[in-house]
Design a protein that fits this description.
Layout (H helix, E strand, L loop, with lengths): L4 E6 L4 E4 L23 E4 L4 E6 L18 H10 L7 H4 L13
Antiparallel strand pairs: 1-4, 2-3
The structure holds FE2/S2 (inorganic) cluster.
């Protein structure tokens, strides 16, 4: 997803598991879909109560789990990473999700 998820009404002390793999059906939070990919969710403890958070959904933020607007360049970045991936030859054989470039099979 090339934009943030707007999440409402989190309270200081809430614990969330931010999906790092991008496969979750309950974005931006982990639903266990990462199993077998090598990715693990990021445990995030909400540091302050706030009515709205912008949580990264592209998974390329440099300030997880917050959106830092990296998504604006994601399509170009993804293509460059996938074209130069050192695991490119293995994508079709054994990947559910490439841990190097995030390539996902087109089922
Ligand atoms: S489903 Fe993506 S990290 Fe768990």
């Amino acid at each position: 997803m090339y934009g943030p998820c707007s999440v409402a009404n989190l309270v200081k002390g809430d614990i969330k598991y931010w999906c790092t793999c991008g496969l979750s059906k309950t974005q931006p939070w982990c639903d266990g879909s990462h199993k077998g990919t090598g990715f693990k969710p990021l445990k995030w403890t909400v540091s302050k109560s706030q009515t709205r958070f912008q949580i990264c959904a592209c998974k390329y933020t440099k300030d997880p789990p917050y959106c830092d607007a990296t998504h604006t360049n994601v399509p170009c970045n993804i293509l460059e990473q996938q074209q130069s991936c050192d695991r490119k030859q293995l994508h079709i054989q054994d990947c559910k999700l490439c841990t190097s470039c995030r390539w996902v099979p087109d089922f």
